């Protein structure tokens, strides 16, 4: 069973401790989120919060069924208008769409950014919520036993769920 | 320690633009002072107003109506009663609704036992002032007792108890009912968010600019000051704008309470130099914000200058002043959100042979609790009230059943399918019966237990009921699966769960502090995902027999904060 194409509601919240050549950046950082090379959205530039920027911007992006991770890039514009990559992170789709959690759960996720040389650089904070087309049935989950039964309950009439096979497997 | 200003650069760990800044002093988690300092402390000062009513069964002479009065006591751990207050006397009424309200401070971390005595006042004293009444001269009607948490976990926030009289030789008589209703005081919901800024601070470091932070204290009636809140430290900055700070009205008293705002230069040795100070109430600060004006800092100079005050160039500005109402912990609890307790016990060989008295798992037939039993009952007795069904998952790890392989997560009750037991007593029974049947082994792995707990937490998300899980892991040694544990914790941070790790015995737990992200960097897994919030707290609990449980209670204080952080970042609102 394949994961269907769906929409993601992504909120780019903030980043922490962003540096360029080991020095804290002063301003003008922004974030680009890509689900495919052609499908992307960017935030405005943060002008006031320096190396701890806050964007708090919400986007909707489509997520084709074949995609296994989305990319997040943080860039910074210098005074001369040159864009420099501060760091990027790959977010596995399985982190916010897996068989354990209901679709529509608001995930609150943080990732380590790495620059072009794969050096650690700051942390990005996101929240992600997936929206799956109606009529999609959640697969049966492994049951641990006891009262904690896998939930086949529906939220407001919309059946929820994603196949176990999606992504690169969950980490639980 | 005890110097309340000696933590590292606060605010570094602000998560995701969320409004909760959790940070605590890097050592001495049992230092009560620490909890006053950070914005998170807003979660703990909840005042509750109790009102009482009763229906008293008439005894004997039907012509003689009751003149009832109720007295409210807090029962200490030692059983001693402390009077919190008493109601007025209601005349000729056997179904009194007392008007007098009693305010008690709700403390999530402790079981607060309340005892109510109802007396029938003799007509000859009926005009005496309530406070002057000698209770032993009045006719004792009956008593009732409950925990404060039992009242506030009821959807109606009210609880009806049966009045009994215990001194009767026969079985307790039913003498009527008393109903206790709890109301959260409005002040605990009203929140101030402020951004403060200073200009032209003076140099304090000889070789660099100052590293300033603000400490806000309230003055008490006796003139002493109590710190309530602190900003982050701005490095090398003489015109700092600090991260937002949060205060609730309850914490400071009222908007008119004078607050002392002191600006210090951070020193890693804990001796911070005063840069300047100013005294302002919240209302004053709001005025400053409205007018966009600054207020000059003053510096009290040394005594030999006759206690003069030096006016400084430096000024304090209020960049943002925002008043809002927030859902409190109790809003969620009364709305039906449950806290589900889970426990995992370390059965690795380092605990020592359970048959010998020096083992940490030695079960004393005299009833004296071993460290594991002690920790389970201390934490469990507080948390049990927040779970209606009281079915608690209980696991063990690091041991093998008689001839099985070593298991790193097995059901304590011996069942192969059912990990849950009934109540705290059920955990105790399962533990006591498991000990003789296990052969202790190793290594110490947390990963499997955390993953099992996370699975339960994630499965709860599909249910419409709000739940938050608390996993208590009690261990005697340092973990060997640090990386696997980190992986599990990073994933768990996205789930409604908090983990309390209590170290018993004499091991060196230095390495365990890594897990408590409050003290170290945020946890990161092997492919770069970072824990989006703090979910682990670790404390060593060596001195089990001394009776000092404040260390364990301090874990629970922060639990409330982690709970609220989860609910708020997930846009989850109280049900009902």
TrEMBL record, chain A:
It holds the Pfam family C2. Residues 1-107 form the C2 domain. It comes from the Eukaryota. InterPro entries: C2_dom (IPR000008), C2_domain_sf (IPR035892), C2_SRC2/BAP (IPR044750). SUPFAM superfamilies: C2 domain (Calcium/lipid-binding domain, CaLB). GO terms for biological process: defense response. This is C2 domain-containing protein.
From TrEMBL, chain B:
It holds the Pfam family C2. GO terms for molecular function: calcium-dependent phospholipid binding; metal ion binding. Its main location: membrane. It is a lipid-anchor. It comes from Kingdonia uniflora. SMART domains: C2, VWA. The keyword Electron transport does not apply. It comes from the Eukaryota. GO terms for cellular component: plasma membrane. Residues 29-161, 174-299 form the C2 domain. This is Uncharacterized protein. Keywords: Calcium, Cell membrane, Lipoprotein, Membrane, Metal-binding, Plant defense, Repeat. SUPFAM superfamilies: C2 domain (Calcium/lipid-binding domain, CaLB), vWA-like. Residues 358-555 form the VWFA domain. GO terms for biological process: cellular response to calcium ion; defense response. It is found in: Cell membrane. Belongs to the copine family. Gene3D superfamilies: C2 domain.
């Amino acid at each position: 069973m394949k994961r269907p194409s769906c929409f993601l509601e992504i909120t780019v919240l903030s980043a922490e401790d962003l540096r360029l050549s080991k020095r804290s950046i002063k301003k003008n950082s922004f974030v680009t989120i890509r689900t495919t090379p052609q499908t992307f959205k960017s935030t405005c530039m943060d002008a006031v919060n320096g190396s701890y920027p806050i964007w708090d911007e919400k986007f909707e992006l489509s997520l084709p069924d074949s995609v296994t991770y989305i990319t997040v890039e943080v860039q910074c514009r210098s005074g001369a208008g040159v864009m420099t990559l501060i760091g990027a992170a790959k977010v596995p789709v399985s982190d916010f769409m897996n068989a354990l959690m209901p679709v529509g759960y608001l995930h609150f996720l943080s990732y380590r950014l790495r620059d072009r040389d794969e050096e650690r650089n700051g942390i990005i904070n996101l929240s992600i919520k997936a929206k799956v087309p109606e009529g999609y049935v959640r697969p049966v989950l492994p049951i641990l036993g006891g009262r904690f039964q896998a939930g086949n309950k529906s939220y407001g009439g919309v059946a929820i769920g994603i196949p176990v096979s999606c992504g690169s497997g969950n980490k639980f | 320690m005890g110097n309340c200003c000696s933590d590292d650069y606060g605010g570094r760990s602000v998560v995701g633009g969320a409004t909760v800044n959790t940070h605590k002093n890097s050592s001495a988690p049992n230092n009560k002072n620490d909890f006053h300092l950070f914005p998170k402390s807003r979660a703990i000062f909840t005042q509750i107003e109790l009102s009482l009513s009763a229906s008293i069964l008439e005894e004997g002479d039907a012509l003689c109506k009751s003149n009832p009065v109720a007295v409210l006591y807090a029962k200490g751990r030692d059983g001693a009663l402390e009077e919190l207050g008493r109601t007025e006397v209601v005349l000729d009424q056997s179904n009194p609704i007392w008007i007098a309200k009693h305010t008690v401070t709700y403390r999530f971390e402790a079981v607060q036992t309340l005892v109510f005595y109802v007396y029938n006042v003799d007509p000859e004293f009926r005009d005496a002032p309530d406070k002057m009444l000698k209770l032993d001269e009045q006719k004792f009607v009956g008593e009732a007792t409950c925990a404060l948490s039992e009242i506030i976990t009821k959807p109606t926030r009210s609880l009806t108890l049966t009045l009994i009289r215990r001194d009767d030789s026969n079985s307790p008589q039913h003498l009527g009912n008393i109903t206790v209703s709890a109301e959260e005081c409005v002040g605990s919901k009203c929140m101030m968010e402020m951004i403060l800024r200073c200009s032209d601070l003076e140099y304090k470091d000889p070789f660099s600019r100052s590293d300033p932070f603000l400490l806000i204290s309230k003055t008490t009636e006796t003139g002493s000051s109590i710190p309530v809140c602190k900003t982050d430290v701005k490095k090398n900055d003489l015109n700092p704008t600090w991260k937002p700070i949060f205060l609730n009205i309850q914490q400071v008293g009222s908007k008119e309470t004078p607050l002392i705002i002191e600006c210090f230069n951070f020193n890693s040795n804990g001796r911070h130099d005063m840069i300047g100070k100013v005294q302002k109430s919240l209302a004053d600060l709001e005025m400053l914000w409205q007018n966009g004006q600054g207020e000059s800092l003053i510096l009290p100079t040394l005594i030999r200058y006759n206690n003069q005050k030096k006016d400084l160039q430096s000024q304090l500005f209020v960049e943002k002043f925002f008043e809002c109402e927030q859902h409190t912990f109790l809003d969620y609890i009364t709305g039906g959100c449950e806290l589900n307790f889970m426990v995992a016990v370390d059965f690795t060989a380092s605990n020592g042979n359970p048959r010998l008295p020096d083992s940490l798992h030695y079960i004393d037939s005299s009833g004296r609790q071993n460290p594991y039993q002690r920790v389970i009952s201390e934490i469990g007795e507080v948390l049990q009230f927040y779970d209606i069904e009281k079915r608690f998952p209980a696991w063990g790890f690091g041991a093998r059943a008689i001839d099985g392989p070593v298991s790193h997560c097995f059901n304590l009750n011996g069942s192969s399918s059912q990990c849950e037991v009934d109540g705290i007593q059920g955990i105790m029974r399962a533990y006591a019966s498991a000990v003789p049947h296990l052969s202790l082994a190793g290594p110490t792995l947390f990963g499997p237990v955390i993953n099992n707990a996370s699975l339960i937490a994630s499965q709860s998300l599909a249910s419409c009921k709000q739940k938050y899980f608390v996993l208590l892991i009690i261990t005697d040694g340092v973990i060997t699966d640090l990386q696997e544990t980190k992986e599990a914790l990073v994933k768990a941070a996205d789930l409604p769960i908090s983990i309390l790790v209590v170290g018993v015995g004499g091991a060196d737990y230095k390495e365990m502090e890594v897990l408590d992200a409050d003290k170290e960097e945020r946890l990161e897994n092997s492919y770069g995902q970072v824990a989006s919030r703090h979910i682990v707290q670790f404390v060593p609990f060596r001195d089990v027999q001394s009776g000092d449980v404040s260390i364990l209670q301090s874990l629970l204080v922060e639990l409330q904060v982690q709970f609220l952080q989860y609910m708020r970042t997930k846009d989850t609102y109280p049900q009902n």
